[in-house]
User: Which sequence fits this backbone?
């Protein structure tokens, strides 16, 4: 048999050992003492280690129940309705004291010339 035809030694079943650092505590361990954590870190786990490995919390796997928030029927909001009424104070003829459409020039609320009939006619 030539060197080419010789069967190669199979490393199957042989554990290759090397040293590596724990990503959490920084201690040196063999590769078989390190474990991949859910955070992506290689951390120590097992006897004669700092046991930095932590399992993922079960609450991380819960999914909320989707709620059905739809109403059975809806209708559009009506347009705003503004009711403008004139009162004694809004009918004042003075600047910045009366309301638009209600002011009367030269009119003084409760003036000496205003009778009940005038008041009833204006505010009817």
Assistant:
């Amino acid at each position: 048999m030539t060197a080419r035809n010789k069967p190669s030694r199979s490393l199957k079943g042989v554990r290759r050992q090397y040293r590596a650092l724990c990503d959490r505590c920084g201690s040196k361990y063999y590769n078989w003492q390190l474990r991949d954590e859910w955070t992506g870190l290689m951390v120590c786990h097992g006897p004669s280690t700092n046991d930095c490995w932590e399992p993922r919390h079960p609450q991380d796997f819960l999914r909320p129940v989707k709620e059905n928030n739809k109403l059975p029927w809806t209708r559009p909001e009506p347009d705003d309705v503004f009711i403008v009424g004139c009162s004694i104070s809004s009918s004042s003829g003075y600047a910045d004291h009366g309301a638009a459409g209600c002011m009367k020039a030269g009119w003084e609320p409760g003036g000496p010339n205003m009778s009940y009939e005038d008041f009833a006619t204006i505010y009817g």
